[in-house]
Amino acid sequence: MQIDWFTSVDGAMQRFEELRGQAQIAQETAYREKKMRGWCPACRRETNMHLVEAPDGGWTNLREALFCECGLNSRMRMIMGVVEKYPPTERFLMFERVTPLFGRMQERYPFVEGCEYFGDDVQPGEIRQAHGIDVRHENMLELSYPARTFRYVFHGDVLEHVPDMQVALRECYRVLEPGGTLLFTCPVFNFRKHNVRAVVEGGTLRHIQEPAYHGNPMDPNGALVFAEPGLELLDDLRRAGFATAELGLAFNPAQGILRDGNPYDDYNMWPIIFKATRRP
Q1: Mind giving me the DSSP string for 172-205?
Q2: What is the per-residue pLDDT across 88-110, written as a single tens digit (0 to 9) for each?
Q3: Among 4, 76, 80, 218, whose Cα sits 20 to 30 Å from the Cα of 255?
């Protein structure tokens, strides 16, 4: 998988602009054909990818709705491809456990440990039942793991649902070993700054904008979006203490990894992943 890595927002924005025309053609083709043929990093072969259209006939998110025969959508396949470039060998934590992506990761890295969020009333580290299996509960704002536990930490589209992203990133830093790697995705739009939608003040939830929810395998009602992250996440990672912070662009129509196709240009999501390394 080809990934363009950037350490500056300006560099990333310039590359987005260069690829704008190609991205538009690719997404129009996906919507018209309803399928693509491409290389899947999970299957490690060329396969068919099918578009699952929105049931209401509205906008279909290409980041989430273009599925390989193996069951992974574009975002998950991108993650598999990036992780393969930095393969964990031990002490690997994922902030998900009941998803198809975790299952695929577990096949490739049997030592991976997964967790989910069950609610504020559950103690971090507690084991609960979900989807017929034992699942460890963790709150990213207050992890139960000791400092310097993991060599490798990953979370996918979790950060936007955490009331304080900076605290969450500092917790990820804390549980990483010196020199350890954090990889994560979140739905980053063409924003430089975060768009804050809700906050918790004095233990009380306050909505700044109309509430928005994303799909959540742990709750049929979805997960509240506290913020739509911007590219300033690079600065947030550095403030959290990370020695390096990079934004990776994995746009690749030959692998069915496209923009999300949102009709509002400001809300286009590129296939982005963040990588940060804890100081040795």
Answers
A1: HHHHEEEEEEEEEE----S-SS-EE-EEEETTEE
A2: 999 999 999 999 999 999 999 99
A3: 218
Contacting residues for 246 by C-beta, under 8 A, at least 6 apart: 5, 6, 7, 234, 274, 275, 276
C-alpha to C-alpha distance for 246 and 264, rounded to whole angstroms: 26
Tell me, rounded to whole angstroms, the distance of Cα 57 from its chain centroid: 26
Q: Which two tokens stand for residue 74?
A: 């574009």
Q: Characterize 59-77 residue by residue with b for buried, 16 or more Cβ atoms within 10 angstroms of its Cβ, and e for exposed.
A: bbbbbbbbbbebebbbbbb
Residue 227: exposed, middle, or buried by beta-carbon count in 10 A (0-12, 13-18, 19+)? buried
Q: How many residues does the chain have?
A: 280
- Beta strand 223-224 pairing with 213-214: antiparallel
Task: Tell me the per-residue pLDDT of 172-227, one tens digit each, with 9 for 90 and over.
Answer: 999 999 999 999 999 988 778 999 999 999 989 999 999 999 989 888 889 999 99
Residue 169 CA to residue 117 CA, distance in Å, equals 16
Question: CA-CA distance, 150 to 22, in Å (whole number)?
Answer: 39
Residue 222 Rama label (left phi>0; alpha psi -120 to 50; beta): left
* Token reading at 243: 């020695």
Contacts of residue 239, defined as CB under 8 A and 6 or more positions apart, other chains included, come to: 166
The pTM (predicted TM-score) of the whole model is 0.95
| Phi and psi based region of residue 260 (left: phi greater than 0; alpha: psi -120 to 50; beta: remaining) | alpha
